[in-house]
Recover the amino acids of this structure.
């Protein structure tokens, strides 16, 4: 199982998110990437913090920054890629995988097909920000800035177009040892294509290995202690 | 377009970054955590760390990096109360005045602890300061590089398992992490927060006539080797309710001497430095658009000793205070014409704040919330003492 990290990007700076409600500044992207590379992080998912107020100018700022990143660590990138023209901006970037969220919710097949043609299907990931409470799972629609009932999401469609699916536990991101395992039970997809993020701990990693998940992305915690990712890898 | 916090004086232009919400900012909300944290539980977590360390250590339990600041007195008093055996490590920044040297030696003798003072090669050090000034408008990067790496080298070389720092500045100022994150010392944090994204390689670059062989202690040790040896560094501000002005005032009882300060009401923090509230403060203003006084005022707003309006008025007054920079250029062996050139070409945007006299008196009336915490001050009689004995 791969062990990676999530970095949130907004207006050219990196942030940490706590429980989907509070963001804290983190620092410069290259400095963070350098450290994650030194920590031998398997992969880094760079996700733009976007809501319905996202605009092309903000996307361009983040893309210009990403273009300058120098790293050997595999990068995934997503957040705010909504039209085919956006894909053209990504071709020169040092990224291996593309993450889409709204495109899967809204079934933007043209966009996903174009991305698949350019990058290959193995590079297409779906990000589902998930909320679990009182036995119900809801999925966040970033473009509309609202949660949807799980029944409103077409998982067959996701299964067809996405190679892997990132499940972000929105209520527990930024917390320690809180990822809600019930989320996995409620998502009708094979475990081996699931990536979990939010509230990851050593215990959660051990459990993720047992149930054969594809990867775990540790959110804010990776930079909180030196070399902590090694202890997660060997959890 | 930068945003202002409506509770304190910081903006999103803060060098550590800042998140602004409808009701305050990341710094203000993180400060609020202090009022709801169960500090007894935090203390238990610290006790667990102490027990682990005492099992591992053979001689000293921890390295404590110090400069002789009031905060170092507070940190050391807590460490000794925890029953730890510390090795106090200091790096000579060659910027201390007689008060600074007194405070460092008083710290060591008052708490009766073993100490190690590193005096870097003055020629290399000055060359790095010169380059740092030229490239980054910053004169403290060489000393910060050493202060944040030499104690870690000492811990590694002497197999001391723990390094204990006082506050995490980025948590205190902008709330970069929650207190619950228990953030520890790291190479990333050092570069991001202490060295403002620079490192010694960018400091030498072109211009500095320095051999890399001379820079070993300026560089952070290999993190894999540190990890294998189980060396970690913690911040006490994650385990105690941090209130610098209050706790620093109490350190006067241990013989700490506050220094008369024209640039801030805080007479404790960095007392004994010939540059901190002088040329360094001027350069900070030039680089980031505000002076150290803003950090102090924001801190006191959050501790509810002053209002935002009072703080804003005080900042305006303190921002007018001029600083004497001539002493620094003499220290750097800069000629009169070089000094004049630098003022003309590099300090033109802040020239109204430069004075050449030793001291400029200006009386600023403080709000009632602050005055009980201000003790009698001392005035330095000798600046820029390379080597000193405090007693």
């Amino acid at each position: 199982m791969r062990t990676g990290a999530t970095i949130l990007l907004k207006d050219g700076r990196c942030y940490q998110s706590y429980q989907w409600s509070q963001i804290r500044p983190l620092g410069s992207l290259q400095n963070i990437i350098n450290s994650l590379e030194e920590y031998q992080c398997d992969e880094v998912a760079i996700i733009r913090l976007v809501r319905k107020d996202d605009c092309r100018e903000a996307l361009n700022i983040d893309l210009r920054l990403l273009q300058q990143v120098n790293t050997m660590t595999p990068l995934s990138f997503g957040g705010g890629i909504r039209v085919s023209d956006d894909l053209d901006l990504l071709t020169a970037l040092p990224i291996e995988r593309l993450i889409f969220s709204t495109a899967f919710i809204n079934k933007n097949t043209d966009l996903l097909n174009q991305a698949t043609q350019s990058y290959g299907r193995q590079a297409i990931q779906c990000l589902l920000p998930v909320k679990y409470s009182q036995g119900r799972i809801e999925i966040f629609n970033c473009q509309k800035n609202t949660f949807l009932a799980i029944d409103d999401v077409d998982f067959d469609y996701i299964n067809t177009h996405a190679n892997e699916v990132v499940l972000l536990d929105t209520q527990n991101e930024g917390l320690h040892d809180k990822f809600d395992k019930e989320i996995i039970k409620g998502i009708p997809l094979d475990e081996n294509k699931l990536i979990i993020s939010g509230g990851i701990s050593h215990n959660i990693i051990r459990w993720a290995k047992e149930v054969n998940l594809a990867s775990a992305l540790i959110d804010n915690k990776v930079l909180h202690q030196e070399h902590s990712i090694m202890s997660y890898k060997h959890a | 377009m930068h945003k202002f916090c409506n509770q304190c004086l910081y903006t999103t232009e803060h060098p550590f970054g800042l998140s602004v919400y409808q009701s305050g900012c990341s710094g203000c909300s993180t400060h609020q955590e202090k009022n709801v944290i169960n500090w007894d539980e935090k203390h238990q977590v610290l006790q667990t760390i102490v027990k682990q360390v005492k099992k591992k250590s053979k001689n000293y339990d921890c390295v404590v990096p110090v400069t002789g600041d009031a905060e170092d007195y507070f940190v050391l008093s807590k460490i000794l109360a925890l029953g730890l055996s510390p090795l106090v490590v200091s790096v000579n920044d060659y910027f201390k005045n007689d008060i600074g040297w007194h405070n460092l030696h008083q710290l060591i003798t008052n708490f009766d602890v073993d100490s190690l003072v590193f005096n870097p090669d003055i020629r290399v050090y000055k060359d790095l300061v010169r380059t740092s000034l030229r490239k980054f408008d910053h004169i403290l990067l060489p000393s910060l590089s050493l202060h944040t790496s030499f104690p870690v080298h000492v811990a590694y070389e002497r197999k001391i398992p723990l390094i204990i720092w006082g506050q995490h500045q980025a948590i205190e100022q902008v709330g970069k992490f929650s207190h619950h994150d228990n953030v520890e010392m790291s190479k990333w944090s050092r570069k991001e927060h202490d060295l403002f994204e620079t490192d010694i390689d960018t400091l030498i670059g072109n211009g500095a006539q320095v051999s890399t062989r001379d820079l070993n202690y300026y560089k952070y040790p290999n993190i894999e080797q540190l990890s294998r040896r189980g060396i970690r560094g913690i911040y006490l501000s994650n385990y105690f309710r941090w209130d610098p002005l209050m706790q620093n005032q109490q350190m006067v009882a241990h013989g700490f001497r506050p220094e008369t300060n024209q640039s801030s009401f805080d007479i404790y923090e960095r007392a004994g430095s010939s540059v901190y509230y002088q040329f360094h403060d001027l350069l900070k203003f030039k680089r980031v658009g505000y002076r150290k006084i803003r950090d102090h005022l924001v801190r006191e707003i959050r501790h509810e000793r002053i209002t935002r309006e009072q703080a804003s008025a005080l900042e305006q007054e303190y921002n007018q205070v001029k600083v004497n920079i001539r002493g620094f250029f003499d220290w750097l062996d800069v000629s009169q014409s070089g000094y004049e050139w630098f003022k003309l070409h590099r300090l033109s945007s802040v020239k109204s704040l430069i004075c050449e006299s030793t001291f400029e008196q200006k009386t600023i009336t403080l709000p009632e919330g602050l005055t009980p915490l201000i003790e009698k001050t001392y005035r330095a009689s000798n600046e820029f003492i390379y080597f000193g004995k405090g007693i």
Notes: Residues 27 and 172 of chain B are 7 Å apart (CA to CA). Residues 38-238 of chain B form a domain with the Rossmann fold fold (CATH 3.40.50.620).
